[in-house]
Write a structure and sequence with these properties.
The protein is of the alpha/beta class. The protein has 23 helices and 22 strands. The N terminus is likely disordered. It binds thiamine diphosphate (TPP) and magnesium ion.
């Protein structure tokens, strides 16, 4: 393998081999992990970090830092080695840099062990310097597009003549798996269309994945594919050639119109007897091979976790000094910016802490009661615009259903579409790319913007991996889903969600909120925006639902506790409870009035958010659902899975047990038994048990 002599010095070599041997020793010690790709990609990581990345290890959350994303998260040791060797410092939950390193040698030695800062795959918010969680292949590349969008948007809003406050670049390392995953198509297509010249993906073209050589599955012409997306494609024929890598990255830095893909030809497990075999996946090399590999690198065979003198110093002099200088210059720039553009500077500061402007919820409308009612998606649109007017960094995306899911921004500043010639636009047209939309939104959220994106609830499945990661990363993304039940009518069973609520509710950390009417929708938005570290799924109707008379029934503010008593008998205790969410709450009220008329004292509980309700203390929950009232009926036009926890063994769950049907709303509801009569009947039935 040719080495460009002029570009490769002894110290470069020493640093690169330190990265490699740390990985080898680590995987050996943990007895699990993927050593092969870090061994091959060490020169790339070295060049990016040491020569290009505008990143200050002492201030790893400096807002204008370049981002480094390791999309092939199984190569996590590559990232941990860089965090350790460059001395990245830890940041606490209050965004303060603390004394400890983000990754210590102890952490490295405890790779993949409980509580180590070096978990199997990089985890955002767990290890400082990890810009996004990766491991599910494809997520990193798609998230990085969101980061690049964020950089452009932030630059357009905040930069001023003489003040280049934002101009960060995004470097993403990815492998065959990332590019095979469909989401890479969605993400690359958006990036190409949006001309994100600040985005560089480096593709580890090693012709191998776990099943062996990729020619058994994957023979795409990758360069042609990305050229077709409108990317600038370049190639580095030897992953060990620092000079070629440097030149390719310089080409990226000069590019003014297109995202860049660098196809990097590499050999997995470079230096080991297992070079170019899939055996360097998921297991250590084995002691004999470790020795042989270290010999090849000119490394002491028996040394373990060796960091030779001069290596860390070299990083300090390179990325350390450069990062420190750039960050200080930026701090100075921000200081004078603050004098000239105080309100904007204040926004930047608030955003970084995930705070919202004072009075952000002052304009949230309330809605007059009425039987004719309003679709909750429509109410949501009014609330969205009210808060968007106050939160300039709220961005509204949609997967080609902007009008239908009612996420259009109206009169607010920046209501236009985000486009290459309009980077201040806050309306993101993401195209019919749900997976890409959710994941890109995560990239906006890690960049501290407040994104929402939308589609129909039934298509939330297309976006599931991104939704799941937003929860795992604790990102305040609003996943907004409309057309939330068979109540959407004529579009039929392909579009009528059934199992989706159960699936979303099963995601830890995701609050699924399905408001009953316009006023609950307003509170749902307050809840969503109040969250600094939690995503929300807002689940809304296509069809109009009555706006509940809150003078007669309880206040919609009850939503803030997840569930509340909406209606009760005029006097005395109820004997039966009907629990409903969303559009079925009005149905429960109708059944309740019927039962009351018949002398059956019933209660209606609106339960828009299970997760939030379950976080209330036991006494409140017992007030709403008294343990001594076992006669309970849940009503939800969805799979009944999970409702047993609220209706108990003596109750009943009215829901969907099949797919829906294509017909006008009324006919669908009658067919599946969602009528006041049927509900009242069921209530009496459980009461009689
Ligand atoms: C979505 C997803 N599917 C499957 C896996 C399991 N997996 C981990 S690494 C890997 C092979 C990846 O191949 P490639 O991207 O070429 O990486 P390399 O083997 O070259 O390091 C697979 C299938 C995963 N992490 N994510
Ligand atoms: Mg590969």
């Amino acid at each position: 393998m040719a080495v460009a002599a002029e570009a490769r010095t002894e110290i470069d070599e020493l640093c690169i081999n330190t990265i490699r041997t740390l990985t080898i020793d680590d995987v050996q010690k943990a007895n699990s992990g993927h050593p092969g790709s870090p061994m091959a990609l060490a020169p790339l990581a070295y060049v990016i970090w040491q020569r290009f990345l505008r990143f200050d290890p002492q201030q790893p959350i400096w807002p204008n830092r370049d981002r480094f994303v390791l999309s092939n998260g199984h190569a996590s040791m590559l990232l941990y080695s860089m965090l350790f060797l460059t001395g990245v410092r830890a940041v606490d939950p209050d965004y303060e840099v603390v004394g400890e390193p983000a990754v210590s040698l102890e952490d490295i030695k405890r790779f993949r062990q409980l509580d180590s800062k070096c978990p199997g795959h990089p985890e955002y918010r767990w290890t400082s310097g990890v810009e996004t969680t990766t491991g599910p292949l494809g997520q990193g590349v798609a998230t990085s597009v969101g980061m690049a969008v964020a950089s452009k948007w932030l630059a357009a809003r905040y930069n001023a003549p003489g003040f280049e406050i934002f101009d960060f670049d995004v470097y993403t390392v990815c492998g065959d798996g990332d590019l095979e995953e469909g989401v890479s198509n969605e993400a690359a297509s958006i990036a190409g269309h949006q001309q994100l010249d600040n985005l560089c993906w480096i593709y580890d073209n090693n012709h191998i994945s776990i099943d062996g050589p990729t020619d058994i599955t994957y023979t795409d012409d990758v360069a042609a594919r990305f050229a077709g997306y409108g990317w600038n494609v370049t190639r580095v024929g030897d992953a060990n050639d620092l000079d070629l890598i440097t030149r390719a990255l310089e080409v990226f830095r000069r590019e003014q119109e297109r995202p860049t893909l660098i196809v990097l030809d590499s050999h997995i497990g470079y230096g080991s007897p297992l070079v170019d075999t899939a055996k360097v996946h998921g297991e250590p090399l084995g002691e004999e091979d470790v020795r042989e590999t270290k010999r090849f690198y000119g490394w002491p065979e028996d040394a373990q976790f060796l960091v030779p003198d001069g290596v860390r110093e070299h990083f300090d002099e390179g990325i350390g000094a450069r990062g420190d200088r750039l960050r200080q210059e930026w701090d100075d720039l921000l200081l004078s910016y603050t004098r000239e553009h105080e309100p904007r500077a204040h926004e930047i500061d608030q955003m970084q802490r995930r705070e919202l402007p004072d009075g952000w919820d002052d304009n949230i409308p309330s809605f007059e009661p009425g039987e004719k009612g309003m679709a909750t998606r429509k109410a949501s649109n009014q609330v969205e615009n009210a808060v968007a007017a106050r939160i300039p960094w709220l961005l509204a995306g949609s997967a080609d259903l902007t009008g239908s899911t009612a996420v259009e921004l109206d009169d607010v500043e920046g209501a236009s579409s985000f486009e290459p010639d309009n980077r201040t636009g806050r309306q993101l047209h993401l195209g019919i790319r749900e997976h890409g939309s959710a994941t890109l939104s995560n990239g906006l959220a890690v960049s501290k913007l407040r994104p929402l994106w939308s589609t129909y609830l039934t298509f939330s499945d297309y976006a599931k991996p991104g939704i799941r990661l937003s929860a795992l990363m604790e990102l305040p993304v609003i996943h907004l889903f409309t057309h939330d039940s068979i109540g959407l009518g004529e579009d039929g069973p392909t579009h009528q969600p059934v199992e989706h609520l159960a699936g979303l509710r099963a995601i830890p950390g995701l609050d699924v909120i399905r408001p009953a009417d316009a006023n609950e929708t307003a509170y749902a938005w307050r809840e969503a925006l109040d969250r600094t570290h939690q995503p929300v799924a807002l689940v809304l109707t296509r069809q109009a639902v009555p706006i509940i008379d809150r003078a007669r029934y309880a206040s919609a503010e009850g939503l803030r506790r997840g569930g509340y008593v909406l209606a009760d008998p005029e006097s005395g205790d109820p004997v039966v409870i009907m629990i409903a969410t969303g559009s079925e709450v009005s149905l429960a009220i109708a059944a309740h009035e019927k039962l009351i008329g018949e002398g059956v004292p019933s209660r209606v509980v609106s339960l828009p958010c299970w997760e939030l309700f379950e976080r209330q203390d036991q006494s409140y929950r017992d007030e709403v659902l008294p343990p001594d009232i076992p006669a309970r009926v849940s009503i939800e036009e969805a799979s009944t899975l999970g409702w047993e926890r609220f209706v108990g063994t003596e109750g009943a769950a009215i829901g969907m047990h099949t797919f829906g049907s294509s017909a006008p709303l009324k006919d669908v509801l009658t067919k599946f038994g969602f009528t006041p009569d049927k509900v009242a009947e069921k209530a009496k039935e459980v009461l009689g048990r």
